[in-house]
Amino acid sequence: MPFVHVMTWPTKDENQIIRLQEDITFAVHKNTGAPLDKISVVVSEIQPSRWADAGVPGTDKDFPVKSRRKNYEE
């Protein structure tokens, strides 16, 4: 049955993760009809140094801007 794996940066709010898991479970159930007890949701927290968007590591001080680049000339 459905298995959803979400990767995100660490959060300090455990309730945020719990709400995310519940919302994802509800969405999968609503859209697929899968029984609740057959839906698994796993959240993996990845350190920013192990994450990159557009080749820019999450620890870069300008990550929010640089990670949106479309080419290497920017």
From TrEMBL:
<dbReference type="Pfam" id="PF01361">
    <property type="entry name" value="Tautomerase"/>
</dbReference>
<dbReference type="InterPro" id="IPR004370">
    <property type="entry name" value="4-OT-like_dom"/>
</dbReference>
<protein>
    <submittedName>
        <fullName>Tautomerase</fullName>
        <ecNumber>5.3.2.6</ecNumber>
    </submittedName>
</protein>
<keyword id="KW-0413">Isomerase</keyword>
<dbReference type="GO" id="GO:0016853">
    <property type="term" value="F:isomerase activity"/>
</dbReference>
<feature type="region of interest" description="Disordered">
    <location>
        <begin position="51"/>
        <end position="74"/>
    </location>
</feature>
<feature type="compositionally biased region" description="Basic and acidic residues">
    <location>
        <begin position="59"/>
        <end position="74"/>
    </location>
</feature>
<feature type="domain" description="4-oxalocrotonate tautomerase-like">
    <location>
        <begin position="2"/>
        <end position="57"/>
    </location>
</feature>
<dbReference type="InterPro" id="IPR014347">
    <property type="entry name" value="Tautomerase/MIF_sf"/>
</dbReference>
